[in-house]
Amino acid sequence: xxxxxxxxxxxxxxxxxxxxxxxxxxxxxxxxxxxxxxxxxxxxxxxxxxxxxxxxxxxxxxxxxxxxxxxxxxxxxxxxxxxxxxxxxxxxxxxxxxxxxxxxxxxxxxxxxxxxxxxxxxxxxxxxxxxxxxxxxxxxxxxxxxxxxxxxxxxxxxxxxxxxxxxxxxxxxxxxxxxxxxxxxxxxxxxxxxxxxxxxxxxxxxxxxxxxxxxxxxxxxxxxxxxxxxxxx
Length: 233
Description:
Blueprint: E1 3-7, H1 11-23, E2 27-31, H2 34-41, E3 48-51, H3 60-68, E4 78-82, H4 87-95, E5 100-103, H5 108-128, E6 137-140, E7 143-146, E8 151-154, E9 157-159, H6 163-174, E10 180-181, H7 182-189, H8 198-212, E11 219-222, E12 226-229
Parallel strand pairs: 1-2, 1-3, 3-4, 4-5
Antiparallel strand pairs: 6-7, 7-8, 8-9, 10-12, 11-12
Helix pairs in contact: 1-5, 6-8
């Protein structure tokens, strides 16, 4: 049974999340703070993480930043579930590498469904990586994306992307010049009927461009339609 790490200092909320995950055949490990969560991550592998922002000691965003700086955990699917629902909080969480953001109060069943969706996407990524290396290597405009190594290099410098950002960039680089609507990106990266807003895709695109530096201009906006990866070398 896949195990989910719940980083939540409110025992009642953590218990409700645990029950919802259990009903969906997922085990749960509850950590009341970031420090105990880091300790747990050092001892076992988790399939995903549900993270609160307002934690005692190290806050959730600092914890998230720490995880994304660790090679072994940079691909761990993370969903933020927090009472902080301002646009700035959501943007900060997504830019630091969260794969999804669910404001409180939320339905535990909806949260469990989103966790399951993240796991399905992660599973699809793992399955795709069994293909030949040539089929998983994309290079254009100074950007090199290697799916088997789950790495991105821009102008010779390594780029750390979240799992969702990586999937979006891969989708665009697979078909240079093709325009994808936000809905198509959601369907391809998250799966059909995944509950995510167009604005979340815009935030991910902005983050990808920023992290790619000068090469970020290769990810073009087609006004009124969506996004594409610029053709040519």
